[in-house]
Design brief:
Helix 2 (33-50) packs across helix 3. It contains four helices and seven strands. It starts with a helix and ends with a strand. By secondary structure, it is of the alpha+beta class.
């Protein structure tokens, strides 16, 4: 029992360590937010057509192991495995999307993910057109509908 609790804790820490630390947006001088969104959608659609999802599952032995437990002469086992699904084409789609935006004159801007300490339980105004060079007061948050939005920490609501 203690072994399985330890495994769950280790898995939780490992998954927490995989959380993203930055968010990428695109910027182009003179381009409106709507134009940028449309161009991004076109590039993403092109990437999806060229590199469709190719999801494979992989089972990796996880916690525990197999051992014998004496129960009237029969061996018993315990253990488990970790099943992971990965999309083999995801890196190719991401690279094509980035290349497509760059070819259309856009530049990647990397924004940090907002920390709990930065937010302090307050709400902030969203940024409709991020600055082309990034800014220390702008960071990304997950919204209630599971999308990502940029906020300006200098503009509380």
């Amino acid at each position: 029992m203690l072994r399985s609790i330890s495994a769950v804790l280790v898995l939780g820490v490992a998954l927490g360590a995989c959380a993203p630390t930055s968010y990428v947006s695109y910027s182009k001088s003179g381009a409106s937010g709507d134009t940028t969104t449309r161009t991004f959608a076109q590039c993403r659609q092109e990437a999806n057509v060229l590199f469709p999802a190719a999801v494979f599952t992989e089972s990796t032995p996880g916690f525990g192991g197999y051992g014998s437990i004496y129960s009237g002469g029969y061996g018993g086992g315990f253990g488990g495995s970790y099943v992971r699904a990965s999309d083999a084409n995801a890196p190719l789609r991401a690279q094509h999307l980035s290349d497509c935006m760059t070819l259309k004159g856009y530049r990647q801007v990397v924004h940090p993910i907002c920390t709990t300490a930065q937010l302090g339980g307050r709400q902030y105004q969203t940024v409709t057109k991020p600055p082309s060079g990034g800014s220390a007061n702008i960071c990304a948050v997950r919204t209630e509908n599971r999308t990502t939005a940029l906020i300006d920490l200098n503009k509380p609501l």
